[in-house]
């Protein structure tokens, strides 16, 4: 576990460049909802990318930044690179959401599509960075990135200190957000309950958490596209998640779709599948004495969003 002060340092470092996103209360269901879909790039990923890039030496930035991303981390890194005047190259799966690819390019990233899933894109990015002397910025296997993601939890606790006594539902893929949020939450209340949520279709961190392996885990298409793909071997996020999380639960595609529709119908908010997993889990919980839900992003393909709402009988 890295020092808690790194989260405080990250908050100071990135706060001039990000939005403090809303925390709203659904009193009927006793949910506290953190809307990171309203972050500048539409996702919490900006926090970690900014903290990492602003922590680098000038020569590390000018060597060129490289990453792999399903889209949200790439947008965050491209935004941070633009802020610091650094070149950035993103490797993404050719299955990535078109809206996310377009957004990365609009922010100035050189995006190269890799045939296959996220795993191949990540391996290609790591190899490219090593061969070309660039600075690789992982979406989750980096303490500075994790510290940046943890600022979401610091904001929640500042917006409502009583949330330290509640159960938190947090999306999980590589574990950066869950690890960072866990460090902040457990500092405030060591007995707080922290639950990671992942899609059943691609449950790699769940398998690592419950079985200590990610062998034989299927990697199927999911509405939660940002949460798919295996975790880099030896990632520092793995022991951090094991230390911080009390449980990792899985949700099915139907539940994710219903949560996306629910967010629009009841809150007027557009969320993507990766952000909807936490809401999907919370909607099945008892939510006493209260539940915190981190809606991690809103970068969903518009056509996909419209199709889900139509299927669920919700008017756009």
Could you provide a short overview of the structure?
The protein contains 13 helices and 10 strands. It has helices at residues 5-14, 45-55, 58-62, 72-84, 98-106, 118-132, 143-159, 176-188, 204-211, 237-244, 253-267, 273-282, 302-311; strands spanning 23-26, 31-35, 65-68, 88-93, 110-114, 135-136, 167-171, 193-199, 247-251, 291-295.
Your description of this structure?
This protein is an alpha/beta fold. The protein has 2 domains: 5-43 and 142-311, Rossmann fold (3-Layer(aba) Sandwich), CATH 3.40.50; 46-136, Rossmann fold. It contains 13 helices and 10 strands. Strands 1-2-10-7-8-9 form a 6-stranded mixed sheet, with helices on both faces. It has a 4-stranded parallel sheet with strand order 5-4-3-6, with helices on both faces. Helix 5 links the parallel strand 4 and strand 5 (110-114). Helix 1 (5-14) packs across helix 2 and helix 2 packs parallel to helix 4 (72-84). The model has no long low-confidence stretch (mean pLDDT 96).
| Count of separate structural domains | 2
Quaternary state, please? Answer: single chain
Number of helices: 13
Q: How many β strands by DSSP?
A: 10
The CATH class of the largest domain is Alpha Beta
Strand order of the largest sheet: 1-2-10-7-8-9
Structural class: alpha/beta
Please trace the helix and strand order, writing H or E for each element: HEEHHEHEHEHEHEHEHHEHHEH
CATH topology of the largest domain: Rossmann fold
Largest sheet: 6 strands, mixed
Comma- or semicolon-separated keywords:
globular; 316 residues; 2 domains; Rossmann fold; 4-stranded parallel beta sheet; 10 strands; 13 helices; alpha/beta
């Amino acid at each position: 576990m890295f020092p808690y002060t790194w989260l405080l340092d990250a908050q100071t470092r990135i706060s001039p460049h990000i939005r403090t996103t809303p925390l709203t209360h659904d009193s009927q269901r006793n949910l506290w909802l953190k809307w990171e879909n309203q972050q500048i790039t539409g996702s919490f990923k900006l926090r970690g990318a900014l903290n990492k890039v602003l922590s680098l030496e000038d020569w590390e930035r000018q060597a060129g930044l490289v990453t792999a991303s399903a889209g949200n981390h790439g947008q965050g890194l491209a935004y941070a690179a633009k802020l610091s005047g650094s070149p950035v190259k993103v490797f993404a799966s050719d299955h990535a959401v078109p809206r996310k690819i377009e957004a990365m390019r609009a922010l100035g990233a050189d995006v190269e599509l890799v045939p296959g899933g996220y795993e191949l894109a990540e391996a290609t990015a790591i190899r490219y960075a090593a061969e070309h002397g660039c600075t690789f910025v992982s979406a989750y296997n980096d303490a500075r990135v994790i510290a940046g993601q943890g600022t979401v939890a610091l904001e929640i606790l500042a917006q409502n200190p009583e949330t330290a006594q509640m159960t938190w539902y947090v999306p999980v893929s590589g574990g950066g957000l869950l690890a960072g949020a866990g460090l902040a939450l457990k500092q405030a209340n060591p007995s707080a309950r922290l639950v990671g949520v992942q899609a059943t279709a691609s449950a790699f961190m769940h398998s690592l958490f419950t079985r200590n392996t990610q062998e034989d885990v299927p990697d199927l298409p999911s509405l939660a596209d940002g949460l798919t793909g295996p975790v880099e071997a030896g990632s520092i996020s793995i022991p951090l998640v094991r230390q911080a999380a009390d449980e990792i639960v899985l949700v099915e595609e139907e539940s994710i779709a219903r949560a996306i529709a629910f967010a629009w119908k009841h809150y007027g908010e557009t969320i993507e599948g990766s952000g909807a997993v936490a809401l999907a889990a919370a909607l099945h919980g008892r939510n006493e004495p209260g539940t915190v839900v981190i809606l991690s992003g809103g970068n969903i393909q518009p056509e996909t969003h419209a199709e889900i709402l139509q299927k669920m009988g919700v008017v756009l």
